């Protein structure tokens, strides 16, 4: 089995590459010339240089592949909205075209659970108006995948929730800093579905093996408020959780101030904007019942998988 992984140098992509290589699969990992590949220096795989914005390079990378795992994409902290849309939408369009040209057996697209929302616990049917350029771009990319799946490409889409685990400097690192740095006294309102990176990787592989063409699968974990999650992490890390919840109105105001500053400076100076502020005040809970039923997916509670991330954080 020969597979291509785009986004291979990222947090989730590198974990997927490692798991596929352990299975004995021939893994091709897409990277740009400037990519840091040190996280996978001990993994037996083939690096191929390319870019999702260069369809010709994707065709070369996919030549002879049985499957493609398309994880490449960026969020709002990595670039301005127009760049996010270009990478996430045009990049997916190019990957789909290259996969069709290479006649791959299966295309697995990793999107985000953020394109689904409800007032309670959301499932795959709870599509919602996108908030911000990232969700908008992922929703558009999903539509491209659905269209190709309806017209002959064997494609399936997975929707990880908030992925937590070793090697993640963003979501995981920021949360752990809140429980290990005594100066951190405040936390955000709302909550998310915390899922282990290992569980998501197993879910992506299960979607490749057992997912139905054109279907969508939420890969979630434990639904927790940030207050409860930080209490769990503080207990596991022998730290202390922040005691002050920032009011939602204050979070939203900060988002508008940061967004205005970025516009004034004509640069992405603050990794925060009104869209991100709006999302950070919501309770984004999900069910993975469909993935459990159709893929045999399972997930661990945060208390069961937090230690690996804490050990990584303390060592780094």
Written account of the structure:
- The chain has a domain at 2-168 and 193-224 and 285-301: NAD(P)-binding Rossmann-like Domain (Rossmann fold).
- Helices cover 45% and strands 18% of the residues.
- It contains 11 helices and 14 strands.
- The strands form 3 sheets. It has a 7-stranded parallel β-sheet with strand order 3-2-1-4-5-7-11, sandwiched between helices.
- The chain is globular and about 55 Å long.
Spatial strand order of the main sheet? 3-2-1-4-5-7-11
Number of helices: 11
Mean pLDDT: 92
N-C termini distance: 35 Å
> How big is the Rg?
19 Å
DSSP strand count: 14
Largest sheet: number of strands, sense, barrel closure: 7 strands, parallel
Residue share in β-strands:
15-25%
Q: Please tell me the CATH architecture of the domain at 2-168 and 193-224 and 285-301 by its name.
A: 3-Layer(aba) Sandwich
Order of helices and strands: EHEEHEHEEHEEHEEHEEHEHHEHH
Query: Which oligomerization state do the chains in this entry correspond to?
Result: single chain
Task: State the CATH topology of the domain at 2-168 and 193-224 and 285-301.
Answer: Rossmann fold
Please mark out the parts with pLDDT under 50 across 5 or more consecutive residues, or reply none.
264-270
Q: Structural class per helix/strand content?
A: alpha/beta
